[in-house]
Amino acid sequence: MAAARGGEEDDWIAKTVRKVSEAVTIRPVGLVEGDDAGAVLARVEVKLDAGDLAGAVAELDALSGSAAEGAAAWRQEAEARLEAQKALSLLAARAATMIGLGG
Question: E-strand spans in 6-91?
Answer without folding.
Answer: none
